[in-house]
Amino acid sequence: MKQTKLKDIGEFSLINSLQKLIESSAPNNIDPKFQLVAGIGDDTAVWESPKSTQLLTTDTSVEGVHFNSINSQWDDIGWKAMTANLSDIAAMGGIPLYCVISLGLNPDSFTSDILSLYTGILEASNEYGCRVVGGDISKSVPEFINIALFGYCSQKPVTRFGAQVGESVAVTGTVGGALAGLKLLTNNQDKAFSSLTKLERQHVITTHNRPHSARIHEGLKLASSGVSAAIDISDGLYADLSRLCDASKVSAKIHQPLLPVNNSLKSLSSKEQALLALQSGEEYELIYTAPSALVQQLNNSLLTPSTIIGEIIQQEAQSVTVLDRNNDQLCLQVDGWDHFITK
Q1: What is the SS3 assignment for 120-154?
Q2: Burial class (CB in 10 A: 0-12, 13-18, 19+), 316
C-alpha cells in the first residue's frame, strides 16, 4: 500500500482523518456530570460541569528531546505523551476529562504515522474515559506534540505542599527501568548491562517506550485517604522528591536498600541499581508522604502497591539524603532531568 505524505494531503484532510478516528473510538465512560456540548469542529470545546475542583495540565514532547521515531513506534510515542499528562492528574488525586492536542509536523511525515500516533494517544486516554475534543496543527521541524488535559477532583486535591516531619516517604510500583531502557536504545550500553538477559533488556526497553498506565486509581485512593503530599515521577525519583521537599519546606532521608528497583535490573551492582532508581525519569509512579500506618493500610486497597523508602525530616535547607544499609550517606552524583542542563 502506497504511503501518503502530509504535504500530499494537506492540513484539513489530515484533520478530517483524525476527527473520524477520534469519534470512532470515543470512550463511553465519561462522567455524565460533565456532558460534552461541542467538540471538534467548533471554535472551542464546550462541556457542562457541576461545582467541583478543576484541574489543567499541559506537556510537550519534542522529536530528539523526548522521543525518537527511529527507536520508537508512533503509537508508543502517542501513548507516552498522553500518559505524561494523565500522570499529572493522577498525582493530584484527580480524574481526567477532556484534552486538546497541538501537533507540529514535518510535511514529509507519513499520514499513517500520525494516525498511529493518535491511536496510541486514544488508547491511553480512553482507558480513563478521557476524550480528545480539539487541538491545532502546524508545520514544524523538529516535530512536537503538545497536550493540554483538563480534569477535576471530587475531593480535596493532593498537592506537593503538605509533607510533615516524621511521615514516611512511599512510592508506588518499581523504578529504574525507563532509564535503563533509554540507555540501551541510545548509548550502546552493552557492557554496562551485560548481566541482563535478552528478555530483561527487552522488558526495560518496553518500560521506556510504553510505560504502564498512569496511576489514576492509586491517586484517587491517596486523595480519599488523606495523604499529606504527592508528586509523580517524571524527571526522576530524586529530583521529583526534592521538588516535593522544597514545596513543603522539609527534607527527606531515603534508604537505598528499600528502593523498589525494577525486577529486570536485579543482576546489576547495588550502586548501579541505586543510580538508575534515583535518576530514572518518565516512570510515572507516585511518590507520596503519609504516616507509616496509613501507607500499610493503603497497600491493602491500591491496585499497584507502594513501598516505604524513607522518611521526612526537618532541616533548614530542603534536601534529599540517600543512606546505605549502614545508614552512611551515599556519595552519588544523582541528576534528574533538566531541559537546559541534562546532556
Answers
A1: HHHHHHHCCCCEEEEEEEEECCCCEEEEEEEEEEC
A2: exposed
E strand residue ranges, the chain: 36-38, 46-47, 53-62, 95-105, 131-139, 144-153, 168-172, 229-232, 251-255, 286-290, 306-313, 320-323
- Domain borders along the chain are 6-153, 168-323
**CB 175 within 8 Å of CB 237:** yes
- Rounded CA separation 4/113 (Å): 10
**Cell 461541542 sits on residue:** 38
Are residues 222 and 291 in contact, defined by beta-carbon separation less than 8 angstroms?
A: no
Residue whose entry in the numeric block shows the C-alpha cell 550502546? 188
The class of domain 168-323 in CATH terms is alpha beta
Own/partner pairs, 183-192, CB within 8 angstroms, 24+ separation = 185/68, 185/71, 185/209, 186/68, 186/71, 192/272
Q: Copy the grid coordinates of residue 180.
A: 535503563
Residue 8 is placed in which grid cell?
A: 500530499
Cell of 139: 508545520
Total residue length of the chain = 343
* Cα 286 from Cα 332, distance rounded (Å): 23
pLDDT digits (tens, 9 = 90+) for 51-104: 778 888 989 999 888 888 888 899 999 999 999 999 999 999 999 999 999 999
The predicted-structure confidence for 134-148, as pLDDT tens digits, reads as follows 999 999 989 999 999
CA distance 204 to 243: 26
CATH of domain 6-153: 3.30.1330.10
Residues 6 or more apart in contact with residue 36 via CB below 8 angstroms: 30, 45, 46, 47, 98, 131, 133
Answer whether the bond into residue 257 is a cis peptide, omega within 30°. Answer: no
Burial class of residue 132 (count of CB atoms within 10 Å of its CB; 0-12, 13-18, 19+) = buried
pTM: 0.87
